[in-house]
Amino acid sequence: MQKKVTKLATISQISYALTLLREGNFQRAAKACHVTQPTLSMQIQKLEEEYNLVLFDRSRKPVIATKIGAQVLEQFQNVLSEFEKIDQIIHTTQGELAGDYNLAIIPTLAPTLIPIFLAKFRTQFPKVNITLKEMPTDKIILDLKKGAIDAGLLSTPLEDPAINETEIFKEPLLIFHSDSLDMTNQLHSKHLPLEHLVLLQEEHCLRNQVLDLCAVSKKNSNQINFKFEAGSVATLINIIQSDRFFTILPLLSIKQLDKKSINNNVKEFPNTTPYREVGLATHRSHIKKNIHEALVDTIKKQLPMELKKSQNTLRLKLKPQ
Predict the structure, then answer these.
(1) Three-class DSSP category at 198
(2) What is the pLDDT of residues 231-289, one digit of tens each?
(3) Hey, which of 128, 148, 201, 206 has its CA 20 to 30 A from 139?
(4) Dist CA 117 CA 179 (whole Å)
């Protein structure tokens, strides 16, 4: 006969279990929870004994949830989210924004967007303890579902039913080429010299958007004569400037170039300017709505004027995946 559950899990036990799920390692989970490893292990073991089930497969490295454990931990996440709403309600009624806020941002946005909004946001909302993490789209989605982060700044739409999205702005995409590569008569996306195209690595959604714009499938991208897959936009720019290459970059990345490069090596697409949509993604059970709204509002107000003016003129949206 199955043991009857007589005691509810404590919030601390739930937090420990969810942290272990996120970290996949007892030592890292204990450090993240600011307790000793024996304490965390003992509390999770007590939790398993009380419910008469095994939440984690400890034989795996990293530690993962068992089949039944995954279902229980998903409910634990809902419980913790509801519990944390108490603090949000209190802060809201007191008319202040406060608390921890873990924000992830994709690598093709981080270097250009963070300097635009961070200082202003921290000045306006000093009681919000913001932590920024740079990570690819797939990892952001995974961590949102785990509850490891509160929100992600990335290219949308994600078309994931578990994720809520708020559009912030549209970012035009432009051609950037080397001095030695003449692009004058090859600006249409269907006529670009693909043998000179260089891209970011596969983990970057901007890569897929560029391939889509150039009508290159993942399968026939192998036909490109030269292949260099950069880990960052900065590396991509340096490679292009060294030889007869080109790529397609977002406007905020273009604005980081010197004036000479912008004047001589940046071209717009004729007729219709393609763009990527940038938005804030949160899990459907998100609890920090006021901070989300404040962040979106701050970013919109701090955008460069040329980006604000272009929002209603862009028509060709490229999806991130």
Answers:
(1) coil
(2) 788 888 888 888 888 888 999 999 988 899 888 888 888 878 889 999 999 987 677 88
(3) 128
(4) 33
Q: What DSSP line would sit under 230-259, residue for residue?
A: ESSHHHHHHHHHHTT-EEEEEHHHHTTS-H
Which alpha helices (H) appear in the chain, and where do they start and end? 11-23, 26-33, 37-51, 67-93, 110-124, 137-146, 205-213, 233-242, 251-254, 259-265, 289-302, 305-310
- What top-level class would CATH report for the domain 98-170+275-318? alpha beta
> Which CATH number does the domain 173-274 belong to among 3.40.190.10, 3.30.420.40, 1.10.760.10, 1.10.3720.10?
3.40.190.10
pTM of the model: 0.73
The domain ranges of the chain are 11-88, 98-170+275-318, 173-274
Q: How many Cβ atoms sit within 10 Å of the Cβ of residue 225?
A: 9
CB 294 within 8 A of CB 182: no
Do the domains at 11-88 and 173-274 have one common CATH topology? no
